[in-house]
Design goal:
Number of strands: 7
Radius of gyration: 24 Å
Strand content: 5-15%
Order of helices and strands: HHHHHHEHHHHHHHHEEHHHHEEEE
Structural class: mainly alpha
Shape: globular
Largest sheet: 3 strands, mixed
Number of helices: 18
């Protein structure tokens, strides 16, 4: 047990440097060699690994040993460019203090439904056309492309037990980036809000078990906002657009952030003087184009549609055998929309309507149900925490800063209006906390921003005290959670510390339509931790093995 704890801790810290190494490689390609912040490089490295992961899946397939070589290369590349010194150890101080967050027994609710199995299907070495048809709820169709990054953590000895390391590192890198933000030459008002955000993140997001892919995309959107405001140059415009496309690849609900992206671009003074002939712009355009390409290619590969959300992008079954039954997508989309707006609550194994005849579809009809349920249970305490953290940072700031400058009036209202537009899109379509907490944060900030003028100085002794208290709260909550997981009596009890629960499952086997190869059908619930390919719908699909350059399988609807 002690050996595994030490091993997991080392993998956690070294993975930060490895991914940052790929970020450094990307900045060299873009002609931005001066970027040396470990945590910025980490986020840039994620984009590189997403592209590499997708093309690796298509042409070669994931392999435990090739994955190990790839991660070691990133590690070597980082330390080839940056020396091991005292400054480096200071950089990993906060990630080290947040180490307890990586130890979990109970994982995210959707982990058992399809997250883990989706990762197994991607990493078994076989390319699959029509993966969406393995699942009767078409969940693989909208499964996050972040799994192509997680695929590199399929390693010898660990197998898939490290799936949550890159997920958690996104949170840790964001916290560390915001911590560094206060020490750099940034606009003091933005520093003020970065400190508030850091306190909120440390106090609120203490359970890795909550982190679905929705949280990852929201963390990246917060990073985009603060990273973009650091400097006004052409490179920042490229990075903002590239990161936004990356966030869309992780979760399409990031589209709600688009008005704020417009605000950032308009605010950037170099936007009108963008040099479209520069090396950074042209190469950034290539990376952006490739990221967009794999979004559509991933959708086509899994569903037979270039974008699974639009029916007119889907091929007919006569042309593409693995095309999804679009009625299933529409059915799920309606359920998701109604659930987000408070129409549905979770019953025993199904979604059930609450007073379906009495609730109209208009915003006036469902809002009272949403306020009574979701807002009260999920969002109200989050808003109160933001306000509390704001007041704490206000206490650590010069009290004469509430003097708005007249020459900033236009910018303040643009920020508020675009934040409100993003909020309205989110609220009108999918008003769930996990789809829009970054927007809630920025809407509150933009409202407060109207009244805040020039900030002359911070009391950094008080600021550091607040951060230390927040880190203390994070670790106390983590210790309490881990202790509770050791004392659970259900299947999520920590029985194999520090690894999460993977049960033995009952299943039956069936043959492919054109070979003796087998696929697997669960006898008790989901495909969680069953060999691949695993299908819920054994009697309604046709699986065939084919070969073109390398072997692949197609999964088609039988009717």
């Amino acid at each position: 047990m002690i050996f595994d704890v030490i091993l997991l801790s080392l993998v956690y810290l070294l993975s930060l440097f490895s991914i940052a190494g790929f970020g450094k490689l990307t900045t060299i390609y873009l002609g931005q060699k001066k970027i040396d912040n470990l945590f910025e490089l980490f986020f840039i490295g994620l984009i590189f690994l997403l592209l590499l992961g997708f093309f690796n899946y298509i042409f070669f397939g994931y392999s435990k040993y090739s994955n190990l070589l790839i991660l070691l290369f990133g590690l070597f590349f980082y330390f080839y460019h940056f020396k091991i010194n005292l400054k480096l150890f200071k950089k990993i101080a906060l990630p080290s203090l947040l180490l307890l967050g990586i130890f979990i027994s109970k994982t995210h609710e959707d982990f058992h439904l399809y997250h883990y199995q989706h990762l197994k299907e991607l990493t078994d070495g076989v390319i699959k056309f029509g993966m969406v048809n393995l699942d009767s709820f078409v969940r693989y169709g909208y499964s996050s492309m972040f799994a192509y990054i997680q695929g590199f953590f399929y390693l010898p000895y660990f197998e898939l037990q490290l799936f949550h390391v890159p997920v958690y590192l996104v949170y840790v890198a964001l916290c560390s980036f915001l911590y560094d933000y206060k020490n750099e030459k940034n606009e003091k008002k933005i520093i003020f809000f970065s400190i508030v955000t850091l306190l909120v993140l440390l106090i609120k997001f203490t359970r890795l078990s909550e982190y679905g892919y929705d949280y990852i995309s929201q963390f990246i959107l917060i990073f985009i906002f603060f990273q973009f405001l650091k400097t006004s140059n052409n490179a920042n415009i490229i990075f903002a657009c590239l990161f936004f496309i990356f966030a869309l690849a992780i979760k399409i609900t990031s589209i709600f952030f688009l008005p704020i992206i417009f605000y950032l671009l308009i605010r950037n003074k170099s936007f009108l003087n963008l040099n479209i002939k520069s090396k950074t712009f042209l190469r950034g355009l290539i990376l952006s184009g490739l990221t967009l390409f794999i979004i559509f290619a991933n959708s086509f590969l899994k569903t037979g549609c270039f974008f699974y959300g639009l029916k007119n992008t889907c091929f007919s079954q006569n042309k593409i055998s693995w095309v999804v039954n679009f009625n299933k997508i529409e059915e799920h989309r309606e359920i998701a929309s109604k659930w987000a707006k408070g129409f549905y609550h979770t019953g025993e194994g199904a979604f059930q309507k609450e007073n379906p005849k009495e609730v109209p579809d208009s915003i006036y009809g469902w809002t009272p149900f949403w306020l009574k349920g979701h807002f009260k249970s999920k969002i109200l305490d989050f808003v109160l925490l933001i306000v509390l953290c704001f007041l704490c940072v206000f206490w650590a700031t010069d009290k004469n800063f509430l003097r708005p400058k007249k020459n900033e009036k236009g910018d303040r209202y643009k920020f508020f209006l675009t934040s409100f537009a993003s909020f309205f899109l989110w609220f009108s379509l999918l008003p769930q906390y996990r789809f829009g907490f970054s927007i809630i944060i920025l809407l509150i900030f933009s409202t407060l921003f109207i009244f805040i003028g020039n900030i002359e100085k911070f009391n950094f002794k008080k600021i550091n005290l607040l951060i230390l208290i927040s880190i203390f709260i994070f670790n106390i909550k983590s210790i309490d959670r881990i202790y509770g997981e050791f004392n659970r009596t259900d299947v999520h009890r920590y029985s194999n510390f520090p690894w999460f629960w993977l049960p033995e499952r009952n299943f039956e086997t069936k043959k492919f339509s054109n070979s003796d190869d087998l696929f697997y059908v669960p006898l008790d619930g989901t495909c969680f931790n069953i060999s691949t390919p695993c299908a819920f719908r054994a009697n309604k699909i046709i699986i065939k093995k084919k070969r073109f350059l390398r072997e692949y399988i197609t999964i088609s609807n039988a009717n």
